[in-house]
Amino acid sequence: MTVPIAIIGTGIAGLSAAQALFSAGHAVHLFDKSRGSGGRMSSKRSDAGSLDMGAQYFTARDRRFVAVVNHWQANGWVEQWKPSLYNYHGGRLSPSPDEQVRWVGSPGMSTITRAMLDDLPVTFSCRITEVFRGSRHWSLQDAEGKTHGPFSHVIIATPAPQATTLLAGAPKLASVVAGVKMDPTWAVALAFSTPLDTPLQGCFVQDSPLDWLACNRSKPGREGQLDTWVLHATSTWSREHVDMPKEQVIEHLHGAFAELISCAMPAPVFSLAHRWLYARPSGTHEWGALSDADLGIYVCGDWCLSGRVEGAWLSGQQAANRLIEHLAR
Ligand code: FAD
Ligand code: NAI
User: Fold this and answer.
1) What is the pLDDT of residues 267-316, one digit of tens each?
2) Contact 314/288 with Cβ under 8 angstroms?
3) What is the whole-number distance in angstroms between the Cα of residue 194 and the centre of ligand 1?
4) Which atom number of ligand 1 is nearest to the Cα of residue 34?
5) Closest to 235 measured CA to CA, from 303, 188, 281
6) pLDDT number for residue 264
7) What is the residue with the minimal CA distance to atom 19 of ligand 2?
8) Diameter of the chain measured on Cα atoms
9) CA-307 nearest atom, ligand 2
């Protein structure tokens, strides 16, 4: 019997590792506490249509990631987003066009991870609480007390604070990962029945509780929805208001939006708030991935590299490649 490799997390990092291992002929089994894949780059279905509450778009700078994004584009999973970009600084809104190529999943961010997952074996709605090693193999325990296994190796592809709790069986790795802090981001979506009278489709914001806002509907594949907007608060504001009730967060960020956009703003017909507790790493690292290859445990995620979609994908590749190289020795 082939003993599979367990991968905890079906964000882009976990799926990148899964694809690399599967292509190299290894059996994998994925787990995620959510009901679907994507993690921080998933889109949320709502009464106002599909909303990108986490990752807004991504850029591709590393040639390996450029190649994979070209493949995604050829398959129709991603399209370029060419927003009319603005910058808000010192109380002034000004156009800020550039030449950067920006990609989005189409018709939603979740398209990408759903396509990557394809028919790989996965267990959703399963929060892993413990990763432990028997005499030869690894097992996982979930929040309902069920044990999964045996597994030959384990790849943990979650934000660092969630990975730390799963690393009791690898104390050296646990102490490195425990040192990685991640900041929260409050995200709010608003929908208007009459489109806002503004040419702005995306805006980098300074000197405000907000650090980004985008017209969700301006992205390819989201046309025909209500006039939907996604607002992201800064890490500082999100940290200071981390426990604020959602209705108040909506009120504050809606107010900040109304203040910076120079057009009349009707009352939204729909609003939604989502708190990303571990949105982005507080500092930068160039680890690629972390591992205790002799034990057979690997850790990856955006926080091992750039804290962006590209970094998460590259980190998943690195974890898989290290595992494959170790097996080849
Ligand atoms: P995640 O996507 O967090 O995946 C981890 C998965 O593990 C999740 O699905 C989670 O449910 C699961 N999990 C966690 N713990 C357990 C457990 N115990 N058991 C089972 N499953 C578990 N990047 C960009 O490049 N461009 C952007 O515009 C951008 N904007 C962003 C805006 C926001 C608000 C946020 C939050 C992030 C943004 N990012 C952006 C960052 C980008 O989303 C991440 O870098 C990337 O998606 C991280 O992927 P990952 O696989 O490392 O982690
Ligand atoms: P990018 O190259 O578009 O943006 C990088 C940064 O450059 C921006 O944050 C912005 O400060 C600046 N910038 C880029 N184009 C600009 C323009 N036309 N006008 C004014 N400023 C401009 O994309 P990249 O490097 O792929 O970064 C991804 C984005 O994801 C960043 O904006 C980052 O802040 C955001 N992000 C947000 C997270 C959150 O939790 N809110 C988590 C991780 C990433």
Assistant:
1) 999 999 999 999 999 999 999 999 999 999 999 999 999 899 999 999 99
2) yes
3) 32
4) 11
5) 281
6) 84
7) 96
8) 67
9) 43
C-alpha 287/C-alpha 309 separation (Å) is 16
Tell me which of 62, 114, 158 to substitute to probe ligand 1's pocket, judged by most ligand atoms within 8 Å of the beta carbon. 158
Q: Residue 282: which of 312, 307, 255, 262 has the closest Cα? A: 307
Q: How far is the CA of 261 from the centre of ligand 1 (A)?
A: 29
* Domains of the chain listed by start with CATH number: 5-44+113-179+287-328 (3.50.50.60), 56-108+182-281 (3.90.660.10)
The yes-or-no verdict on residue 225 having pLDDT over 80 is no
- Asked if 58 and 103 count as a contact pair (C-beta separation under 8 A), the reply is yes
Ligand 2 atom 4: residue of nearest CA = 59
Which residues have a Cβ under 8 Å from the Cβ of 160 and sit 6 or more positions away?
A: 177, 178, 180, 181, 182, 278, 281, 301, 303
Cα 329 to Cα 315: distance, rounded to the nearest angstrom: 21
Is the pLDDT score of 53 beyond 90?
yes
Predicted model pTM = 0.98
**Token pair of 48 as six digits:** 């106002």
Q: Which atom of ligand 1 is nearest to the CA of 311?
A: 45
Which residues lie below 8 Å from residue 252, measured CB to CB, with a gap of 6+? 209, 241, 244
In this model, does residue 224 exceed pLDDT 90? no
- Helices (H), strands (E): how many in the chain? 8, 20
H/E run at residue 310: helix 309-328
Residue pair 190/226 in contact (Cβ under 8 Å)? The answer is no
Ligand 1 atom at minimal distance to the Cα of residue 32? 21
